[in-house]
Design a protein that fits this description.
The structure is a homodimer. Chain A is an alpha/beta fold. Chain A has 2 domains: 28-278, Alpha/Beta hydrolase fold, catalytic domain (Rossmann fold, 3-Layer(aba) Sandwich), CATH 3.40.50.1820; 288-388, Serine Threonine Protein Phosphatase 5, Tetratricopeptide repeat (Alpha Horseshoe). Helix content of chain A is 48%, strand content 17%. The first copy, chain A, is built from 14 helices and 10 strands. The first copy, chain A, has an 8-stranded mixed beta sheet with strand order 1-2-4-3-7-8-9-10, sandwiched between helices. A two-stranded antiparallel ribbon of chain A has the order 5-6. Chain A is globular and about 85 Å long. Chain A starts with a helix and ends in an 11-residue tail after the last helix. Chains A and B meet through helix 1, strand 1, helix 2 and helix 9 of A and helix 1, strand 1, helix 2 and helix 9 of B.
Chain lengths: 389, 389
């Protein structure tokens, strides 16, 4: 027995060693199971946290969440968009959490009405019509679960393609406040004789879409099948009649026809364009800030106004820009930025420490000492430099 | 001792359980260390294998490799491009292995000549000029290592941005046969008074670029710093004078100006466009194949001609299209496709089994039995259906 145990533990030891030191996996997220009482079934989520999520230097940050439909197809695309547009000094979107909702019964969950279609001689989509139920699950169970499990800031985006786009349009009209932004790619508006278009038109004089944002993309569709459903025509009708009316009800929207993409390829380029549209103007005028640091706050106020949601400058980003000011020898500007960080993140030892380090550079040793002491009172492991002792 | 061992093994057991069942990581690749004798240092690679790489049903497949510079910035983008354009019936590129070469000393490795630049009052790039050495490492050590370690088919792409683009252009002119395609984004042609442009012009009447392909992107660059180096002007000069001349020496190339992207954002959209250009026309006319299955081989012959590299239709894809033929009730076409798979992959038990299953559907039981027996002779675990016993 002892012999066997020894072998087993050795085995695990080597697995462990191998796992951690040799085959260093590149991990982009995790899968987790989640029971829904409303749907009476288990659902699987694919979650990807932004790189700074585990950053132990800054105060714990809070993030927007993108809820992504059909993650089996689109999860890697969304991760790429986030990684390509964040990090460094130039950020074209805030870092965000991506939550992919894996399908159990796609046509059931994504379609607002029951209808069936004959495809290659077979009746398909027979379980359709469950969108109301699925939306209830998202609103009452999933969002609260995600908000409990992760540090979220309350800004939510829903991203869906094809049937997923149909569902996102349904969510927009049924629960407009459930998400701040809706990203909709080449949606199946043709579904059930354009039922979504018809029901949307009924709301055009009453719906309140203040503060909501929609990005709608359309692909080049010339296949016979798409023609049969008048796929593109139904998207254009929705855009021309529904979205024009919804804009009068407060919706900020952008429609884009991607002539080089088809239904199968549109997701990645259009998702990239969608976040650039939603967060248009968020990228800081980095080179001007060392000269006029107040620009940073003005900039965030403007962006907050335009997306109708208050966003604070992230501590890590402001620190990087302060470092850039130091490089440009604009120490007074760096000081202003680090003071802003302390104001926004009063419990971050890191912000005090960074300012302490700057004061050493500025030869303001008494101030430096005070900042280091404040940093230590928040996080006792921080060392006070010899110079200040 | 026995007690401790028991505890340790329990610990590992729970780690193992937890690792595999609860926190299911989403893994896109692995990091590995590799010693270079030429560079006399360790290099880290980030490797991502395509989804079908571990597919145990098909015969082991062989893949093109993309060598990617600056993977810390661009690895997720390339994975997204691959995942978005492969899988399913419509494939806009072949599945490929991505090998990211992590930087040790970026300006040393990427620059063909030694030169230094004054930036914010400091001298930078002092170690520059090591591109010849780095290219030797790639050609003599890295490519052989990758070809030994993974199932590669000999088609290679080099993808570089900025300084990485400068290096890719250097590789193109110094070792044109090292890669089949070169993907170059907003390259630093300004480096050392356009030394790459000057050295390229000297080769314009002698270099042999038959069968080589280049995609060159340029971003909108209006910052003062880029102006100072005449960044865009140098790219345009290279395009107008060098690439025009190189085209006469056999180079197939495409230049694209992405007016909505800047130096920092160009990589993802331009890399997406680059593979669509390199493999232009590879996507099969899926809906026509059930009617005329010979189209499939004709199509691959044409694509092979246009990329100057013979590519075989992947077994898994052909099987999927055969399934689609069955759905369309074109059984004779499905049979032709599965026979093609047996011809191309004579050691794949799966191809025989798939054909056996088709023959059952066609009620050709004697043929079905033969195919199942052939499948079993290659892979004894395959069960012969009751019907055929």
């Amino acid at each position: 027995m002892r012999h066997i145990l020894k072998r087993v533990s050795l085995l695990f030891f080597f697995y462990f060693l191998f796992h951690n030191f040799f085959a260093q996996d590149i991990i982009v997220g995790h899968k987790l199971d989640f029971h829904s009482t409303i749907l009476d079934e288990n659902r699987t989520l694919w979650v990807s946290l932004p790189q700074s999520y585990q950053d132990s230097l800054c105060a714990p940050a809070f993030y927007p969440v993108m809820y992504l439909l059909d993650p089996a197809f689109h999860f890697h695309s969304m991760i790429a968009v986030r990684e390509a547009l964040t990090g460094g000094l130039y950020n074209y979107m805030p870092e965000m959490i991506i939550v992919g909702i894996v399908n159990n019964d796609r046509s059931r969950d994504m379609t607002p009405t029951n209808s069936s279609v004959i495809h290659s001689g077979k009746k398909i989509h027979e379980t359709s019509g469950g969108a109301a139920h699925f939306l209830q699950f998202i609103e009452k169970e999933l969002i609260p679960f995600v908000d409990r499990s992760y540090r979220t800031n309350g800004y939510r985006i829903l991203n869906g393609h094809s049937f997923g786009g149909l569902f996102a349009l349904y969510a927009l009209q049924e629960r407009p406040t459930c998400f701040n932004s809706y990203v909709v790619h080449d949606p199946s508006i043709w579904w059930d004789d354009r039922s979504i278009y018809k029901s949307a038109l009924l709301l055009k004089d009453t719906i309140d879409l203040q503060g909501r944002c929609l990005y709608l993309s359309m692909a080049y569709n010339q296949t016979k099948e798409k023609d049969r459903y008048r796929h593109s025509q139904s998207i254009l009708a929705y855009k021309n009649e529904v979205l024009e009316a919804f804009a009068n009800r407060g919706l900020r929207y952008h429609f884009e026809y991607l002539s080089k993409e088809n239904h199968g390829t549109i997701f990645l380029p259009a998702s990239y364009n969608s976040v650039r549209y939603i967060y248009d103007g968020i990228c800081l005028p980095v080179k001007e800030i060392p000269i006029r640091p107040a620009l940073l706050m003005e900039h965030y106020r403007q962006v907050s106004d335009s997306i109708c949601f208050k966003i604070e400058p992230p501590e890590g980003l402001v620190k990087k820009i302060a470092d850039y000011c130091v490089l440009r020898e604009e120490l007074a500007s760096a000081e202003k930025l680090l003071l802003l960080n302390i104001y926004n993140y009063p419990n971050s030892a890191y912000s005090y420490q960074a300012l302490g380090e700057l004061y050493i550079k500025m030869n303001k040793l008494q101030l430096a000492k005070e900042k280091f002491q404040e940093a230590r009172s928040l996080y006792p492991q921080i060392d006070i430099p010899e110079l200040l002792k």
